[in-house]
Amino acid sequence: MRAGYYQEQLEGYKAFIPANLPPNPPIEMDNELVNLLSSADRSLGRLDGATSVLPNPDLFVAMYVRQEAVLSSQIEGTQSTLEDVLEFEIDEQGNEHPKDVQEVVNYINAMNYGLQRLNELPLCLRLIREIHQKLLDGVRGSDRSLGEFRKSQNWIGHEGCNLKTASFIPPPVAQMQQALDNLEKFIHYNKNLPVLIQCGLIHDQFETIHPFLDGNGRVGRLLITFLLCQKGILQRPLLYLSYYLKAHRQEYYDVLMNIRTNGDWEGWLKFFLQGVYEVSQTAQIPLKIF
Question: What are the phi and psi torsion angles at 258 (to 5°)?
Fold first, then answer.
C-alpha cells in the first residue's frame, strides 16, 4: 500500500505499519490541489504581513494563542473556556478553577516553550518529547510516560475499547521507532515539496505513528505551527487549525483513515489546505479593527 500496510500481530490484532515519507508514488498535484495550495499560501502570506503593522502584535498573538489552546484542548474533552483561562492566569493561587483549565494553560506553555526552543535547535524528536512533557505536566496523562515515546502498544477508538474493538491500531514499538526516525529525516532534509504540503504530510504521519500513550492530538496540532515558524512561512504563531478540525471532526477522522486504507494522501491534503485557507481568512478579520 502507498501509505503503509496492516500487519497481524501474535496477539491477534492488526497494527498499521506506515510507509516512509515522502509518499511513493509522489503526490499528484492536480488542478484542485494546486489551486487550494495557491489560495492557502496567499491567505497565509496576507495574515503574516498584516500582523507586522499592528501597534502591539505580541498582545494580539498572546490572545490568539490562548483561544487556540482552549479549542485544541476541547477536542480532547476539556470544558474550560477562554474566560476560565484568563481568570486562572490572573488569580492562579486564589479561587477554585475548573480542573481542566490547567490542561489549557499547559498547552499555552508548551507552545511558548517550543517556539523559544526553535531558536536553539531545529524541530526534532528530542524537542517533540520536551513539548509532550510540558503539555502533560501535572494533568491527565502525566502518569503515562511523560515526555517519553511509548514502550507498549496503544490504540485509538471509542471510550472503553480495547485492541480487539479499536478503530485503529498504530505501529508496534519497534516499527514506531523506525517510522519516527524517517519522520525526523523528512522534517530536516525534504526540500522538494511546498512547505504546506510538507506540513500536511508530517501532521498525518505523526498522528498515524501515535508515539505517545496520551497527548498525540495536541502535539500533532502544535507541530503544524512549529513547522510554519521554523520554515519562515510565519513570523509569529498565527495559524491554528483546531477550530476547523473541531467543526469538521468526523471528516478529519475520515480523511486520515482514507490515507491508511486507500493511500489517498491527496484527499487529506485538500482537506488540510482548505482548512489553512479558511482559518487564515478568519484570522484576518479582527486585524482589520486595528
Answer: -70, -25
